[in-house]
Amino acid sequence: DAGITQSPRHKVTETGTPVTLRCHQTENHRYMYWYRQDPGHGLRLIHYSYGVKDTDKGEVSDGYSVSRSKTEDFLLTLESATSSQTSVYFCAISEDRGLSTNEKLFFGSGTQLSVL
Amino acid sequence: RKEVEQDPGPFNVPEGATVAFNCTYSNSASQSFFWYRQDCRKEPKLLMSVYSSGNEDGRFTAQLNRASQYISLLIRDSKLSDSATYLCVPWSGGYNKLIFGAGTRLAVHP
């Protein structure tokens, strides 16, 4: 299995508080992604990174920010958590194979976030 | 119309049965397709990639119908361990263009 660690695994927080989720990889892969998964929806891309300090928005980026100061770490921050951000968050990585796609995603175990 | 549509199921089948799921997609520019498997409360894992008309890997066969814009996944000789949710994922280009379907749940019983 790919070396991806998400922390925390579970978190309960209150509306309006800041929350940071961490994704750590030991594979030295270039690309990292944050997805959320909600019932009835597929995985939806929040933000992704294509290198250190290089990030871009995904489909559902409002209310989220990211940072990548090292290859191995990709942080997702909810500046002021809302109940609509209650979800399961997955981090994923993919290697740079010189193609325009990185479809072989390896996912972390996920973080269950509950915003009350 | 959703970009990717899958029957949520569940498909309840006995061991040894053959079962097929369909996935329809709306973007005719989709070039490649992927099936991911997700066990309950676990992360998705890549099951199969489809770059042309289809692919076969052991008991699993994926077939693509570009004219009708759907892709199917056939599982032969179902095992209890096949019980999971199967996610259909078309790709239409770019690093952030993997569109995940909501998945089809399969439950294989003895």
Brief summary:
The complex is a heterodimer of chains A (116) and B (110). Chain A is mainly beta.
General description of the model:
The complex is a heterodimer of chains A (116) and B (110). With 116 residues, chain A is mainly beta. Chain A contains no helices and eleven strands. Chain B has 110 residues and is mainly beta. Helix content of chain B is 0%, strand content 53%. Chain B is built from no helices and ten strands. Chain B has strands at residues 4-6, 11-14, 19-25, 32-38, 44-50, 54-57, 60-65, 70-75, 84-91, 104-109. In chain B, the strands form two sheets. Chain B has a five-stranded antiparallel β-sheet with strand order 1-3-8-7-6, with no helix packed on it. Chain B has a five-stranded mixed β-sheet with strand order 2-10-9-4-5, with no helix packed on it. The model of chain B has no long low-confidence stretch (mean pLDDT 91). The interface between A and B is medium-sized, with 24 and 25 residues.
Radius of gyration of chain A: 13 Å
**Strand neighbour order, sheet with most strands of chain B:** 1-3-8-7-6
Strand residue content of chain B: over 45%
Mean pLDDT of chain A: 91
Report the count of strand segments of chain B: 10
Q: Please state the structural category of chain A.
A: mainly beta
* Chains forming the largest contact: A-B, 24 and 25 residues
User: What's the shape of chain B?
Assistant: globular
Number of helices of chain A: 0
Mean pLDDT of chain B: 91
% residues in beta strands of chain A = over 45%
Helix/strand/pairing category of chain B: mainly beta
Estimate the global geometry of chain A from the Cα principal axes: globular
Question: Helical segment tally of chain B?
Answer: 0
Query: Unreliable stretches of chain B, pLDDT < 50, 5 or more residues?
Result: none
Quaternary form: heterodimer
Summarize the biggest pleated sheet of chain B.
5 strands, antiparallel
